């Protein structure tokens, strides 16, 4: 928000504020009060109230009559469903379910939005909390894949590389080397860099420009995704990613070259 | 949009514009160009471009690099999924699927947003087009249910009652009488009022205040939903609506009185 304060009040400011308010609900599993929202977006309470009124009137938000707290409204459910179906993501669901069943571990599909990997389909969403899943790029296998197969300029994520565990890569140069390794190996590994005891293998869903349009991850513990079985998990994920390129990309946007070969260390 | 033009430029205008732009995608199954969007929202092209830039930067919209057209972005898919799950709508899916299978006809669940009934779950969404389904209130069984079980003030929908077929109720007084009949009968009927040859029976999902939080409809032709079988279809829908009250409403918001008895003419 603060980045906008120098700009003229040309409407873009209000758009960013509206979107910032909506985003609060992506990060929070429960309804929020007007003062919660003002605090999280760093907006004056009066401005927040004014924006919330407009957003409630159009169904983007909904106010609980008992608690006066706000939640995402029916318009968001409607448009969100349209966005989900129009991107063909419902067609990815059975592919991910089959992959998860075949491997016995969690399978997730994410897309990059700004400086986050956002999980849109997969086992992590199947549970009941309905919490949106936004993950940092630098400390996740999903994020490393999205960065490794992107333009050089897009590799610059600009934010400080916040440590999640003592294994998180926090040095930008070390991250650059890691991304080169990922690209050469054909897969990314997150070995306790987000949470200790969690190991994740990810591969790209590539488009015609050799960009990762999505990242596909298998997640479990190091006892399940052992060093010996790492290659097998990566191959399983890569086979599913190839299917997803067909399911999610139109024919004219699909990769024509060979898939990256999984190269174990 | 025009209703805003007299208001001071206090941010609410930009919010309404942003939401109007997003809404264009709920009504259109395909991507839209900046000039399409300017025309549909009645905004100057320069303003539209400025808002589209802000909306694309945050992932609410996405621009196709080949066609330069806009579509709903990953943030909408993410937040929409959060809204859908947090409202428990995924728990309604198996109930509606079972109802559709038991009756052999289309089963849909809608919520009211402004002057529309918006289908959020059901057979009409299961097909592949991903188009959002917004229906008028006065010419649909879903809409009649949402109006009949609401506060008197909410029955005033204010818009002209546009005819869809020669059977559509277009006189506000006749609609008022129809809503009283619907409430007394415990169900609503749309008998060729939206499209000829289509007959729909709908019942309310009621809350503790006796308001229809959702409307549940069964849709087919008059040859399937015959006069003789109407009662059976309405009873099947009502049984499912009772289950949905449990699935979709927290215990303290649930109806305590008896369910409306289905009274055939």
Quick summary of this structure?
With 265 residues, chain A is of the alpha+beta class. Helices cover 43% and strands 17% of the residues of chain A. At the A-B interface, helix 1, helix 3 and helix 4 of A face helix 1, helix 3 and helix 4 of B.
Per DSSP, what share of the residues of chain A sits in E-state strands of 2 or more residues?
15-25%
CATH architecture group name of the largest domain in chain A = 2-Layer Sandwich
Overall pLDDT level of chain A: 89
Q: What's the multimeric state?
A: homodimer
**Secondary structure tally: strands of chain A:** 8
Profile the largest sheet of chain A.
Answer: 6 strands, antiparallel
User: What separation lies between the terminal Cα atoms of chain A?
Assistant: 43 Å
The CATH topology of the largest domain in chain A: Beta-Lactamase
Give the structural class of chain A: alpha+beta
Strand order of the largest sheet of chain A: 5-4-3-8-7-6
Biggest interface and its residues per chain? A-B, 55 and 55 residues
Q: Can you identify the CATH class of the largest domain in chain A?
A: Alpha Beta
Radius of gyration based on Cα positions of chain A: 20 Å
Specify the helix fraction band of chain A: 40-55%
């Amino acid at each position: 928000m603060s980045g906008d304060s120098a700009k003229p009040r040309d409407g873009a400011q209000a758009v960013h504020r509206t979107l910032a308010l909506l985003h609060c609900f992506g990060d929070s599993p429960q309804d929020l009060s007007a003062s919660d929202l003002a605090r999280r977006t760093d907006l004056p309470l009066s401005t927040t109230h004014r924006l919330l009124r407009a957003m409630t009137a159009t169904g983007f938000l909904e106010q609980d009559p008992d608690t006066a707290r706000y939640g995402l409204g029916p318009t968001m459910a409607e448009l969100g469903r349209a966005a989900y179906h129009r991107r063909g993501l419902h067609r990815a669901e059975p592919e991910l379910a089959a992959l998860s069943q075949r491997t016995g571990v969690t399978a997730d599909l994410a897309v990059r939005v700004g400086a986050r990997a956002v999980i849109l389909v997969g086992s992590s969403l199947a549970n009941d909390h309905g919490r949106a899943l936004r993950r940092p790029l630098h400390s996740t296998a999903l994020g490393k894949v999205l960065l490794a197969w992107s333009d050089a300029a897009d590799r610059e994520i600009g934010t400080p590389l916040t440590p999640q565990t003592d294994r998180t890569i926090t040095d930008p140069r070390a991250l650059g080397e890691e991304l080169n390794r990922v690209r050469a190996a054909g897969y990314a590994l997150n070995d306790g860099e987000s949470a200790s005891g969690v190991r994740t293998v990810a591969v790209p869903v590539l488009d015609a420009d050799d960009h990762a349009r999505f990242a596909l991850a298998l997640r479990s513990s190091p006892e399940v995704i052992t060093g010996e079985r790492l290659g097998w998990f990566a191959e399983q994920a890569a086979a599913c990613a190839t299917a997803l390129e067909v399911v999610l990309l139109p024919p004219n946007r699909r990769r024509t070259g060979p898939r990256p070969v999984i190269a174990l260390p």
